[in-house]
Amino acid sequence: GKKSKNPALWWVDGAREEVRWSFEELGVLSRKVANVLSDACGLQRGDRVILILPRIPEWWLMNVACMRTGTVLIPGTQQLTAKDILHRLQKSKAKCIITDDSVAPAVDLVGAECQSLKFKLLVSEGHREGWLNFKDLL
């Protein structure tokens, strides 16, 4: 068939870099992300996931993947402090946190105080000790 002129996601950053995904592409990618959450992270329906990312394409993928897996998405802003993150982790009993290089250090400061936190997923080109790299797993 013909490719739709109306993408499911059309994202443009400040440097005018674009990401355009059709509904089919978004479906395929979100299934892959759902597999990362359920296989690599062992998350199951009802498990809580804290997502702290800027509004990048991966933010949208994580949202759709959480719907697919039945996990409970708890979004957060990158302005959260380590104390804020600790509070959210402890109250929600989240098993997984997903963030980038800018927030990961704050998570590392408080992560040991959260017994329920089993998986830390980093959306980054780089790697960090104790974190799973999302792009590698995808």
From TrEMBL:
<dbReference type="GO" id="GO:0005759">
    <property type="term" value="C:mitochondrial matrix"/>
</dbReference>
<keyword id="KW-0436">Ligase</keyword>
<dbReference type="InterPro" id="IPR051087">
    <property type="entry name" value="Mitochondrial_ACSM"/>
</dbReference>
<comment type="similarity">
    <text>Belongs to the ATP-dependent AMP-binding enzyme family.</text>
</comment>
<dbReference type="Pfam" id="PF00501">
    <property type="entry name" value="AMP-binding"/>
</dbReference>
<dbReference type="GO" id="GO:0006633">
    <property type="term" value="P:fatty acid biosynthetic process"/>
</dbReference>
<protein>
    <recommendedName>
        <fullName>medium-chain acyl-CoA ligase</fullName>
        <ecNumber>6.2.1.2</ecNumber>
    </recommendedName>
</protein>
<dbReference type="InterPro" id="IPR042099">
    <property type="entry name" value="ANL_N_sf"/>
</dbReference>
<dbReference type="InterPro" id="IPR000873">
    <property type="entry name" value="AMP-dep_synth/lig_dom"/>
</dbReference>
<keyword id="KW-0547">Nucleotide-binding</keyword>
<dbReference type="GO" id="GO:0031956">
    <property type="term" value="F:medium-chain fatty acid-CoA ligase activity"/>
</dbReference>
<keyword id="KW-0276">Fatty acid metabolism</keyword>
<dbReference type="GO" id="GO:0004321">
    <property type="term" value="F:fatty-acyl-CoA synthase activity"/>
</dbReference>
<keyword id="KW-0443">Lipid metabolism</keyword>
<keyword id="KW-0067">ATP-binding</keyword>
<dbReference type="GO" id="GO:0005524">
    <property type="term" value="F:ATP binding"/>
</dbReference>
<feature type="domain" description="AMP-dependent synthetase/ligase">
    <location>
        <begin position="5"/>
        <end position="121"/>
    </location>
</feature>
<dbReference type="GO" id="GO:0006637">
    <property type="term" value="P:acyl-CoA metabolic process"/>
</dbReference>
